[in-house]
Design a protein that fits this description.
Blueprint: E1 11-18, H1 25-37, E2 42-47, H2 61-71, E3 77-80, H3 82-85, H4 91-101, E4 105-112, H5 125-131, E5 134-138, H6 149-153, E6 175-179, H7 187-195
Parallel strand pairs: 1-2, 1-4, 2-3, 4-5, 5-6
């Protein structure tokens, strides 16, 4: 078990979750842009025990934590095993628990645009939108986010681009889209390269 994060004063905390099997520069690219784009005090990497939408991880949880720690060497970033500590499997349950355990935290969910494509398959996905602001990072000119199930349902809650940096001050449901330079890599590609 890792040391539990401490939040002893009001802090803006980004949460970037995933299996991180393996963690890679694409994840770090999104994390760095989140720190540049939003007034975050900390960015917590939430390594999931398992992804309910994917088949079993090829790497066990402890090694995924270690591999993520090797990648994350930024002072404002922290790798956590909070999903295991809280014994939660789904994002909605994790967010409920983290918000109750850390009442001084002002949390925001950080994700890549590819995650929005199947966001409606997440357990109680609408509740997630209602619980926490969501920052979505993707390459410039990506516009498919408004055609996704979640994008259509919450289109009225999308902040205009000129206000996206104010997302931390917004009450959920609120979300914003951030254009970032393309870094085309995926965990699936890396795993497939290792096995071939």
């Amino acid at each position: 078990m890792l040391d539990l994060p401490k939040v002893d004063r009001r802090q803006n905390i980004g949460l970037i979750g995933g299996s991180f099997d393996p963690p890679h520069e694409g994840h770090m690219h999104v994390a760095k842009w989140a720190l540049r784009s939003l007034p975050l005090d900390k960015l917590w990497w939430v390594v999931s025990k398992r992804n309910p939408l994917k088949k079993q991880s090829t790497t066990d949880f402890k090694n995924r934590i270690k591999n993520t720690q090797k990648l994350v060497k930024q002072p404002k970033m922290l790798v956590t095993d909070l999903e295991a500590v809280f014994d939660t499997e789904f994002t909605v349950d994790f967010l409920s628990k983290v918000k109750s355990e850390y009442p001084k935290g002002n949390f925001i969910w950080i994700m890549g645009a590819d995650g929005l494509n199947n966001f409606h398959e997440w357990k109680h996905w609408e509740k997630i939108f209602e619980m926490i602001p969501i920052a979505i990072f993707a390459r410039p000119s990506y516009s498919d986010f408004l055609t996704t199930v979640a994008g259509k349902k919450y289109s009225k809650n999308l902040l205009p681009e000129n206000r996206s940096n104010q997302l931390m001050q917004c009450k959920a449901p609120a979300w914003a889209f951030f254009d970032i330079p393309l870094k085309n890599i995926s965990s699936t590609e890396i795993r497939n390269r290792k096995t071939s």
